[in-house]
Amino acid sequence: xxxxxxxxxxxxxxxxxxxxxxxxxxxxxxxxxxxxxxxxxxxxxxxxxxxxxxxxxxxxxxxxxxxxxxxxxxxxxxxxxxxxxxxxxxxxxxxxxx
Length: 98
Fold this sequence. Notes:
This protein is mainly β. It has one domain. It has two helices and five strands, in the order ααβββββ. The chain has helices at 5-8, 18-21, and strands at 26-28, 34-36, 43-60, 64-78, 85-88. Strands 1, 2, 3, 4 and 5 form a five-stranded mixed beta sheet that branches. The longest helix has 4 residues, at 5-8. The radius of gyration is 14 Å and the shape is globular.
């Protein structure tokens, strides 16, 4: 496992697209090829052929509604407590409202 001491000490990290997906356990390509992740976080991602594109609204207990835009073909699955509930859009995977 790759050690990232600052992240383990609670320092924030901004990871986008493939950089985010590779922080997990693995990334499964659309043809079924697994790519080993860094195991920094407990999640996995799967690439699908259709993209999830559009506005996203997340209802959070601490910050109210967060508005954004998403454009991704990867679906990420985890067991962490989410920041909020997706009320419009797809979220991490388009299935569980996270």
